[in-house]
Amino acid sequence: AMSDGDRAMQLRADQLVLRECDDNGILRLTLNDPKTRNSLSEGMMDALAAALADAGDDAAVRVIVLAANGPVFCAGHNLKEMTTARTDPQNGGDRGQAYFTRVMGQCSRLMASFSAHPKPIIAEVAATATAAGCQLVASCDLAVASEEASFATPGVHIGLFCSTPMVALSRKVAAKHAMEMLLTGDPCPAARAAEIGLVNYCVPADQLTGKVMEMAQKIASKSTATVGFGKPAFYRQLERPLVEAYEFAAEVMVTNMLARDAEEGIAAFIEKRHPNWTDS
């Protein structure tokens, strides 16, 4: 049984990341801590990791949309929490080293889990995303931004280079665009973010959810087994040299060919009919 303390934590986590799944299997996860600009506190990262883990195991979930409440999508790490850790006597005078190590490790595991996740994740970015918040958007498979949104890796302004955000950023945009953001710290408006490939589309604010849902519904109509083979494999092959990438992808293809939905999908194509997915 849960203690009262555990129950309070449980409720808090449910409030930090709201979960809502529709009949098409589109799960909407909403960062819901606007008073800290949805900063990535340990609690927020725990709540998001738990929501993603549950979605990975839930056969009803076909696509994940990551949105946020309030005037900022996500401002990154909570600098006040970080600063408090420097002087916390519980840390044994290490100037916060153990705490920073723990938080950076937690954040890196969370961000890396996006590419390994079997379900596609679409960021719906209505407002500014900075530092680890920009990393969060870069970590999603797809992203759509409102014209009012902007993106920045502004650590350089405060003496803390955005070294972990750059891992996600440098894998989604060309090196010179990433370096410009990292070295200047300047905000990148949504229209420019779409040009450099940080987001797929920049749309007027009133069309944002519609555009995201249009993409989500297309993906939700596919076999989750098929998408589950392909999506994580995309990132794994990307990190490998060409010949190794082909060897790996060929293995994935063979496994996929033997799946029921591939048999059904190919038969439906040959017979000129709609496939009937069993997600297996």
* Poorly predicted regions: none
- Residues in helix, %: 40-55%
The quaternary state of the protein chains shown equals: single chain
Helix and strand string, N-terminal first?
HEEHEEHHEEHEEHHEHEHHHH
Provide a brief overview of the structure.
The protein is α/β, with parallel strands linked by helices and 280 residues long. It has twelve helices and ten strands.
How does this structure look, described?
With 280 residues, this protein is α/β, with parallel strands linked by helices. Helices cover 52% and strands 15% of the residues. It contains 12 helices and 10 strands. The protein has helices at 4-16, 42-57, 79-87, 97-116, 132-139, 165-172, 175-184, 190-195, 208-220, 224-238, 242-257, 260-270, and strands at residues 17-21, 26-31, 63-68, 72-74, 121-125, 128-130, 142-146, 150-152, 188-189, 201-203. A 6-stranded mixed β-sheet has the order 1-2-3-5-7-10, sandwiched between helices. Helix 10 runs antiparallel to helix 11 (242-257). The protein is globular. The mean pLDDT is 95.
Which characteristics define this entry?
280 residues, alpha/beta, 6-stranded mixed sheet, 4-stranded mixed sheet, 12 helices, 52% helix, globular
Which SSEs are present, and which pair or pack?
Elements (H helix, E strand, L loop, with lengths): L3 H13 E5 L4 E6 L10 H16 L5 E6 L3 E3 L4 H9 L9 H20 L4 E5 L2 E3 L1 H8 L2 E5 L3 E3 L12 H8 L2 H10 L3 E2 H6 L5 E3 L4 H13 L3 H15 L3 H16 L2 H11 L10
Parallel strand pairs: 2-3, 3-5, 4-6, 5-7, 6-8, 7-10
Antiparallel strand pairs: 1-2, 8-9
